[in-house]
Amino acid sequence: MDDILEILENNARIEIEHLAKLTRKRGEEVKKMIKNYEKRGVIVKYKTVINKSRLRDERSVFALIEVRVTPQKDVGFDSIAQRIYRFPEVRSCYLLSGTYDLLLFLEGKDIQEIANFVSEKLAPLSSVKGTTSHFMLKKYKEDGVILVKDGKNKRLAVTY
Fold first, then answer.
1. 32 in Cβ contact with 47 (< 8 Å)
2. pTM for the full model?
3. pLDDT by residue (tens digit) across 28-44?
4. CB 58 within 8 A of CB 52
5. Could you tell me if 57 and 131 lie in one domain?
6. Among the four residues 29, 44, 67, 97, which has the most C-beta atoms within 10 Å?
7. Beta-carbon contacts of residue 42 (< 8 Å; ≥ 6 apart)
8. What is the CATH number of the domain that holds 81?
9. Alpha-carbon distance 11 to 47, whole Å?
10. Most distant CA atoms of the chain, gap in Å
């Protein structure tokens, strides 16, 4: 991967001039390359990683949903995946190998909202053959960013 992309992936807010120095390119050249990456769809979005567990007034529930589907003739998994990933509750959607075909990352205001999505929107789709839901209890790391403070383990040792 290009040096510019590697740096932007870790710090999307880096200033062009600093990026130019790090890559030993001129600022205008770096700007042009970034615009080209955006135009070609290589750079899709600039993202901020937010540790929502630190926000007192805003809580979310996150879930991973494994989905078994029947692929459709001539389009395989793409058609059903497209139908599913267009739901606003679906944050990410991946095609998998193994027991399940799709892996969904969902975000909701509570467990009931996610349960309603699965039972009312996802499961009734004719291509969906089964689902397994996993609720995230705690995030330790997201997109390469450690979200918990490093420190000594606060648990007491078990003694007999």
1. no
2. 0.74
3. 999 999 999 999 999 99
4. yes
5. yes
6. 67
7. 5
8. 3.30.70.920
9. 9
10. 67
Specify the number of domains making up the chain: 2
Q: Which amino acid is at 30?
A: V
Same domain, 32 and 105: no
Residues 87 and 23 occupy one common structural domain: no
Q: How many C-beta atoms lie closer than 10 Å to residue 125's C-beta?
A: 13
Query: What is the residue whose two structure tokens read 């000594």?
Result: 152
**Residue bearing tokens 């029947």:** 70
- The answer to whether position 151 is within a domain reads no
Q: 8-66: per-residue pLDDT in tens?
A: 988 899 999 999 999 999 999 999 999 999 999 999 988 888 777 777 666 789 999 99
Strand order from edge to edge, sheet including 102-108: 90-95, 102-108, 61-69, 128-135
- DSSP states of 106-132: EEESSHHHHHHIIIIIITTSTTEEEEE
